[in-house]
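Notes from hallway chat w/ T.B., transcribed later so I don't forget. T.B. wanted the structure written out for a chain they're using in a teaching module, and asked if we could keep both sequence and structure tokens in one place. Agreed to drop them here.
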Amino acid sequence: MNPVLTRVSERIKKRSAKSRASYLARTHHAATKGPSRGGLSCSNLAHGMAACAQTDKDLLSATSTPNIGIISAYNDMLSAHQPYEDYPALIKKAARAEGAIAQFAGGVPAMCDGVTQGREGMDISLFSRDLIALSTAVGLSHNMFDAVLCLGVCDKIVPGLLMGALSFGHLAVAFVPAGPMVSGLSNKEKAHTREEYAAGRVGRDVLLAAESASYHSPGTCTFYGTANTNQMLMEFMGLQLPGGSFVNPGTELREQLTIEVVRRVLELTKAGKNHTPIAHIVDEKAIVNAIVGLLATGGSTNHSLHLVAIAKSAGIMLDWDDFAELSTVVPLMAHVYPNGLADVNHFHAAGGLGYLMTQLLDAGMLHQDVNTLLGHGLDRFCQEPLIHNNTLKWRPAQRESLDPDILRPVDNPFDREGGLRIVDGNVGRAIVKVSAVSREHYRISAPARVFYSQQAFLDSFNRDELKQDFVAVLPCQGPGANGMPELHKLTPYLGLLQNEGYKVALLTDGRMSGASGKILAAIQVSPEALLGGNIGKIIDGDLIKIDAEQGSLEVNAEHDIATRSTPMPDLEASHSGMGRELFSAFRAQVGSAESGASIF
């Protein structure tokens, strides 16, 4: 085992000893009450099965029959979740075939950052994660279930489902993916069209045609953003069937995997042959494995928030220093857009997650001794599914990369270090994703240009005021200020300026999309401006130094920046409209970015 991996894991375990013990005690107390339905009165139980067919009522009346609660993020507007429409019927049929029951326990909201980017709705996007956790808890609170199947794919949805499910740590839980859409317009062409539109060289009709050719059918978007990073994490944590994350919707293999996950989660119930509640799967080692997967694949920066919040839901205390130290030894083994030109379908075909896990386990870069959906040992995930003679079969994962431009071995990676860095200094602490940034852009020293909104930046760009070296500083974008929206709308404009030879970067207490790419961006600055963080005291002309190599983040001001007051713009405009007024309690309660930006 790699000594850094061991050291970080032990540090997390020691730090979490009290909170983890408390979590496990609560879980054990819930488990000792017996089968969930056994504690319900006859009236309670009658309400819980009133709408069922008589055969299902007979089974539910026998409290030893396992009952699976389905929590789904289905809606038919969003491509990633549209395939879930038929899953409940399929799951119920598969459960009956195993002598069990499945009930649709509840739906959770599923919003798409791709639809809300740069719009008012983005201000509640991050908060939707905690709302999904609450909705999951509501669905499971009827105490009718022995197992849970979580149906979700995208950005805040999977973390929210997992956080909610961990509150029911005594139950068996598995995640059910829907898969990515087949490949459309290449990512290189899409990015080029966006930059051409930003430059005014093509019109909206050309841009819409390019976007529609890229996002064109049911399934997850094919770039390696937060949604597909979610899928990787669920496999690395042992909560999702191996090799299933990137199987396209509407295929026989996709359907058979959904049937198979029903069998597997039933095995983890008290009535099954391998009783393993989720509390015994998501432990300190599983969380470290998730971070390793994030770093090795160059995954979304959003998971420096989500993994902290997920871990806390299991009584595990994680911080950014853990990410930073692991990043020094975990190699970057994948190049998937925005870190490269390939999409997740190409990545999957080249060997995918099974190849990565095999390599990392062999190199001592993952904890093997963990519990999973398939039993004990992460090596069980070094296999991939296939259909043979109309039957789901398994074969060993690919041992060699089929495309070294997409996927490389541990001993010949794209970079010896992981894709995330921590920068620290008199501005605060921030995350930098370097896996898509050329090394010549790892550092910058340039004057600040301060903007209090993306629109203010775009207005300045359109007035031709940004033809210079500069660091775009966007304060008051943190979780307490306006919900910490992603600032992905800036990407094509900063990219265009960089293409023209200017040295540019972004500094913000907000987030960037999982699709953040070639621009140096120090994001999620803590403390945020609203809480008096120095990022809110920066003014135009201050010299900003960001160095992802050395891990520094400094502002050189004419006078000591700490003595300045913090000018605070009127934030009311971002607190109402599009439902934002309903989230005032979230803004008041939310923690810092480094603590997971959670209300819990």
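Follow-up for T.B.: The mean pLDDT is 93. Might be a good example for the class.
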